[in-house]
Specification:
The chain has two domains: about 5-195, 2-enoyl-CoA Hydratase, Chain A, domain 1 (Alpha-Beta Complex); about 200-245, Lyase 2-enoyl-coa Hydratase, Chain  A, domain 2 (Orthogonal Bundle), CATH 1.10.12. It is about 50% helix and about 15% strand. The chain contains twelve helices and ten strands. The strands form two sheets. The chain has a six-stranded mixed beta sheet with strand order 1-2-3-5-7-10, sandwiched between helices. Strands 4-6-8-9 form a four-stranded mixed beta sheet.
Length: about 250
């Protein structure tokens, strides 16, 4: 078993769980292929509005699988597109994504969480990039995403030292949305996912697209994209129904 999928809230929420307990949910090629397969399926699902990523056994994901990386050469990684397409698919998934983090979210596990739109963490969670101690670096989006979130100085410290940070430290830096007790993590994330899932699918998709490009384009380009997406929203069926319903209150 690598990745499980449960449908909650009348199939509006898809809860994906990394489940490789013997390796603390380390992200191998097979586990990422399973995740990619689920995301492709969920993108076509007629009812799903929100995706949640979590880890079994109170661990999110303790990095990439070092048994693969230890023997891998540059040529092999290039020829197999090692983990590459998966990260782009997750970052640009057309609907909101939430990382529900408990225990370790390290290296690639941290990067998976950062690719999500929202992160809710248990008090037990620890985050970090230990790659430097293995002669590597965060190579799956971590350096780029972290600099944009917390600035170059703090991102540099975490990447150069490999230091782990607690959930409360991560929230203080602006990495997380909420920190809750371990026992309340699933309930909290599910409540957040359910609240989002009640919004119009068309709006969620357009907002996701606008937010996804906000960190990748100049402000002038982002503003024009936002305006074009707003103009598209004006013609949607949900806009017509919901504005009229609001005006009748």
């Amino acid at each position: 078993m690598t990745v499980t999928c449960d449908f909650l809230c009348d199939e509006a929420v898809a809860w994906l769980t990394f489940d490789v307990p013997e390796k603390r949910n380390a992200l191998s090629s097979s586990i990422m292929a399973a995740l990619e397969k689920h995301l492709q399926m969920l993108q076509k699902h007629p009812h799903v509005q929100v995706i949640v990523l979590s880890g079994a056994n109170q661990t999110f994901a303790a990095g990439v699988d070092l048994t693969e990386v230890a023997e891998m050469t540059t040529e092999q990684a290039l020829n197999t597109a090692y983990l590459g397409p998966m990260w782009r698919q997750l970052a640009h998934f057309p609907l909101p994504t939430i990382a529900a983090v408990s225990g370790y979210a390290l290296g690639g596990g941290f990067e998976v969480a950062l690719m999500c739109d929202l992160i809710v963490a248990a008090e037990t969670a620890q985050f970090g990039f230990p790659e430097v101690s293995w002669g590597l670096l965060p190579g799956l989006g971590g350096t780029q995403k972290l600099v944009r979130l917390i600035g170059a100085y703090r991102a540099s410290e975490l990447c150069y030292t490999g230091r782990f940070i607690t959930a409360h430290e991560a929230r203080a830096m602006g990495i997380l949305n909420q920190v809750v007790a371990e026992s309340a993590l699933k309930e909290t994330v599910l409540a957040l996912a359910q609240k989002i899932s009640m919004q119009p699918r068309s709006s969620l998709q357009l907002i996701k697209k606008a937010l996804s490009y906000s960190g990748e384009t100049p402000l002038s380009v982002g503003l024009e994209l936002e305006r074009q997406l707003f103009l598209m929203a004006l013609s949607t069926h949900e806009k017509a129904i919901r504005t009229k319903r609001f005006l009748k209150k």
